[in-house]
Amino acid sequence: MILVLLVILLAALALVARADNCPPITPDPTLHPNFTIQAPAFAWNQDKVRGVTLGGWLVLEPWITPSLFASKPDWAVDEWTYGQYWSNHSCPAAEIAVHWKGFYTAADFQSIAGVGLNTVRIPIGFWSLVPLANGEPYLVGAFEYLKQAVTWAAASNLKVMVDLYGAPGSQNGLDSSGRRGTAEWYANWTNADRATAAVVAVATEFAKPQYGGAVATIGLLHSPQPNAAWQLEWLRGYYNQTYFAVRNVSSVTLLLGSAGPLGSWSGFMQPPQYQGVGISEPILPMFDATTLQYGATDNLRWTCGWNDTLTRSNHNLWTVAEMTAATTDCAAWLNGRGVGARYDNASAVRYPGSCADKSGNNPGAFGAEYTRQMGVGFETQTYVYEAAGSGWTFCCWNTEAAADWSFSLGLVYGWIPVPITAKHTKPCNFSSYIETGAAGRRAVPAGVVTALAAAAWLVSIL
Ligand SMILES: *[C@@H]1O[C@H](CO)[C@@H](O)[C@H](O)[C@H]1NC(C)=O
Ligand SMILES: *[C@@H]1O[C@H](CO)[C@@H](O)[C@H](O)[C@H]1NC(C)=O
Ligand SMILES: *[C@@H]1O[C@H](CO)[C@@H](O)[C@H](O)[C@H]1NC(C)=O
Ligand SMILES: *[C@@H]1O[C@H](CO)[C@@H](O)[C@H](O)[C@H]1NC(C)=O
Ligand SMILES: *[C@@H]1O[C@H](CO)[C@@H](O)[C@H](O)[C@H]1NC(C)=O
Ligand SMILES: *[C@@H]1O[C@H](CO)[C@@H](O)[C@H](O)[C@H]1NC(C)=O
Ligand SMILES: *[C@@H]1O[C@H](CO)[C@@H](O)[C@H](O)[C@H]1NC(C)=O
Ligand SMILES: *[C@@H]1O[C@H](CO)[C@@H](O)[C@H](O)[C@H]1NC(C)=O
Fold this sequence. Notes:
Layout: H1 2-20, E1 49-53, H2 67-70, H3 79-87, H4 94-102, H5 106-114, E2 119-125, H6 142-155, E3 159-166, H7 189-206, E4 215-219, H8 229-247, E5 253-257, E6 277-282, H9 296-316, E7 318-323, H10 368-387, E8 391-395, H11 407-413, H12 446-451
Parallel strand pairs: 1-2, 1-8, 2-3, 3-4, 4-5, 5-6, 6-7, 7-8
Helix pairs in contact: 7-8, 9-10
The structure holds 2-acetamido-2-deoxy-beta-D-glucopyranose (8 copies).
């Protein structure tokens, strides 16, 4: 009798325990490497950044991991609404913790180093770094995974570029900022101060000797989109404020997120007053109405046109290009969950082209011409960005379904060469280049801008 009661009591306790006991959201401490620090110092302008972005990991992007969103209502479109969805469920962080544990592992860092890359770029959101406010529904916990990732990188001889992808209110209205919609970061300086505090939290942590100096750069803000002169001044003020706040705790190189024409940053944050400053420039033809239309040859002539622009910029601030091999926006949800591609007329902007053989999760189904174009494009881009700039970061190492954006699949299917520095053709052997880089990457013809539905403008920059 007593035994039966005891069994019932234990069973009841177990039930209570299960109900309250959500799985741990912290990383597995046994996966901490007993490492010898490998990562040596990075010599800017001697070593070139050859990096991959670990997108969609510590900041969710529906197009990189559609599986986390497809099972949820249509209104779950970014990390903000993902958190809102879970706010009414038990164990709200259980699913995202499984994702944090599994989407990238120590083995990936070893593979990345093994193919000759020297850097991983890791996006992070402010909500993982400073206390939540104003009812922000984000799920917190990614910073612990970032710390673990930096130890894996240090043990694998990789440098890390940590990049603030999400600032309070959103700096660009893109899902990659955590909150799709309008860019409200410019609404009040509290938003700037919280972004500064987030960057300082990263700088303070990775200045600790246990990380072996593996964090080579901290990106102050990814892909900001100021849309008025005062917002650009705001951004510059934020960069300046954050520079001095970080220099209190760390001498790490700080990367500015470019906005507007690259040449417009000429003379900004120069030595001797400022030390260790670079700039990150997205060179992504699929998000610009003009460059998206280029055929294979003009796309290469345009890539080569960046050689002069980057040479000038790299004399101003070390300049790293953000690149990929894809030349279209055909990947599903790339422009946001439920938003179509420009390339095949599914969005408000019209272009003649078919997406049928240009994305999806099976590179075997890609057209031979598109695969060839991605291959020549990769070799040409990496030539230009290394010859004229300080290197490149490629989005992404892995994607769930957008194979044309995957470095690891590019290696398997041959549009990325082995070794990654091989050149099968002489890059930039054209008699003339297209110099649109100097004019600004977001030069959209006026007629197109007015035709653009608000949702279609929410391009998902990586
Ligand atoms: C690190 O060392 C500890 C104790 O020696 C061991 O238990 C652990 O498995 C090691 N970790 C790894 C990743 O090898
Ligand atoms: C969560 O539940 C509350 C009360 O049941 C409801 O008012 C709210 O709309 C729900 N929120 C979401 C995001 O489902
Ligand atoms: C600043 O702007 C954010 C985003 O729009 C808003 O949530 C917050 O309440 C504002 N803070 C202040 C102090 O006005
Ligand atoms: C940059 O910040 C410093 C320190 O706060 C300040 O003294 C200086 O005026 C600022 N410079 C610009 C151009 O805003
Ligand atoms: C630097 O640190 C000092 C001492 O903690 C502090 O008083 C000062 O405000 C800090 N400066 C910046 C720009 O954060
Ligand atoms: C896209 O729209 C343009 C202009 O309306 C048209 O010329 C073109 O044929 C269309 N392309 C496709 C693939 O439907
Ligand atoms: C690219 O720029 C670099 C640095 O200015 C220069 O050495 C190289 O010749 C240029 N290459 C081409 C193809 O223009
Ligand atoms: C450029 O190089 C390719 C591959 O080596 C070659 O086929 C092509 O004829 C060259 N073009 C020019 C203009 O030299």
